[in-house]
What we know:
Blueprint: E1 10-15, H1 27-31, E2 44-49, E3 81-83, E4 89-91, E5 97-102, E6 110-119, E7 126-131, E8 149-150, E9 154-158, E10 161-164, H2 173-176, E11 180-187, E12 190-193, E13 196-197, E14 200-204, E15 207-208, E16 220-229, E17 247-252, E18 273-274, E19 276-281, E20 288-290, E21 302-306, E22 317-318, E23 320-328, E24 333-339, E25 344-345, E26 350-354, E27 357-358, E28 368-369, E29 374-375, H3 415-424, E30 428-443, E31 446-461, H4 463-469, E32 474-476, E33 479-481, E34 506-508, E35 513-515, H5 527-530, H6 537-540, E36 551-555, E37 572-579, E38 591-596, E39 601-604, E40 614-615
Parallel strand pairs: 10-19, 14-26, 15-27, 28-30
Antiparallel strand pairs: 1-2, 1-12, 2-6, 3-4, 3-7, 4-8, 5-6, 7-11, 9-17, 11-12, 11-13, 14-21, 16-19, 16-20, 16-23, 17-18, 22-25, 23-24, 29-40, 30-31, 31-36, 32-33, 34-35, 37-38, 38-39
Amino acid sequence: MKTMKIKQFFRVLFLGATAFTLGSCSDDIAQLENVDNPLSQQDFTLFSSGTPERTRTTAQMDKTGDTYTYPFYWTHGDHIWVKGDNGLWRHSHEDSNFSDHVSEVGSAGGWKKAHFIVNGTFTKDTYPVIYVGPNSPSIDKSKDPNTMTATGPLKVVVKKEQMQEAEFNADHFATSGDCGIATAEKRSNGYEFQLKHLAAYLLIYPWHNIKYSNGSPAHLTLDKIIIEEVSENGKYGADQYAPYPIAGTHQISANATELPAPLKDENDPNGTRSTTIEFQCGPHEQGFTIPYNKLSYETVGSFVVMSPSRATDSYSKRKLKMTFHYFDMFHRKYEFPYTMATPKEFLGNSFTRFYPKISASPIPETPEYGEGMYYGWDGQYAYNGAVGGAPYNKAKWNDNELVVAQWSCKNMPDVNELYWYWRNGDVRWDDVTSYTVKVKYIDMGEEKEYNVTQTGGVWIKKRDAILRDGSPTYSSGNAIFQSELVCKHPSHDADGFYPAFCDKHGYESETNSFTDMRYWFPDKVDEHTKFSTPPSYESLGKPSEDKLDDYFFLPALGQRHGKYPSNVGTHGYYWSSSICKPHSQTTSDNSWYLEFTAGHFIVTSQNGVRSNGYVAGDGWFH
Length: 622
């Protein structure tokens, strides 16, 4: 069972400035005594999470004969605000400690316990506590968070653009607008409180019944969901605003029982309101599997944080429209609109579930690829045949020596991600699946069309499938690649866990050290040895039909240097988003790319001159 996260109740323990001793401390609290802590000369109070029960232990799901629960945990970077004796809200300290780590495949993990250090002493019988997430406008980035105070009311942003990293995962709740309040009450061993969540949550489980024109089930993945408020007759309090915003900036008072209407900006009345949420399914396009002819409650789901309806209004129901943007396994993009039949209530501290069926006409089984595929590295415009036989037209590549991709390579994987797919992706050459490439070009002033149908390409396992299943051990020359699915870069030590997927760091297995290959000198290690072809690559072939949902397909689209493409069906060249530092065999023009044929599959920069016309753009990698 995978997990979402919810803020637990706390037990507040008093600590003096110089007497850092507690006879009944847990081992986690006791460990703080030995830390060289800047607070050692100040008064502070330690807020420690309890373990017997949580604010809300379950979110019930309707399924005959079974009940699903969704426990929530603390995440690294969480902070709370406590209203002190002087009436100021105090922000918890950066040195706050998390323990009892919970880690699951496909999740960044979480903690069952959290110990929050807050400056000052607390002597009253009760104290207000508020959680507003890391993106709160109440946080002044210019100030020291360890001594930050606010006069209130505190603010929270329910984001109009949200992104979920993996299927059936709610690690993004904190950054998307999760928030809550509580009253800490004095007990014999300190203070305890239970957090009441103020945001509403949508749990969306799409499925489909779409087939290819040959009658076989289509393999679809979900890119994003556009959620819109479409109510027409709702009037909400003094605002008289209909439809009611589903995202925006809210303020929270100590005695709040629900989120108020989003704040108005006098200079821009709609600046902090949105009746639309754009929900991205995964860090890149084509993120989440859409099951065929079945609902999947345990493995596939998109979870959205939303501004709730206001229970105090005479009309608290609203109707939503959801537009599903999805791809098939050949990167063709489609849209499907779904509108609720009747309005529903979306109150704070509650989950609403949807099971939309995506239904459409059959999809042609032979994909067609056209214009706009070939670019110089991070070119702003695609290559095409130019008048008079010149090779390029408006095809400027990004030639800055040190640059972050901003155009056509912006959403391509970086070299670390390419290597991760190479290492773990069960890469398979396929010489059976057919596709068509149609590209227009100019020859001696006459417009012509390059039109070929070819076979040849590779299947690569999707990120979530790799994380779910593990990876094989590869041996290549002197390099042995074990099936470790975590990034063990030293920078992760402070987090207390190593992430299962990381797009910032790579591996140097010869020395078992870890480095960010975006800034790696390629002549340091023989790149063809390091990134050589995985074993059995050529003989594996297309995955079986029941496994296709776990893979995506990259056709061998060749490259474009002149009027029309070359090497289509035999060679694939796909840019990464990473430049390559100059070394003995390259210039500063080189960038990293993926190259494959029937006989090899490598990540390299050897022929990565930025003016080359390789494949880039959106939607190629899952």
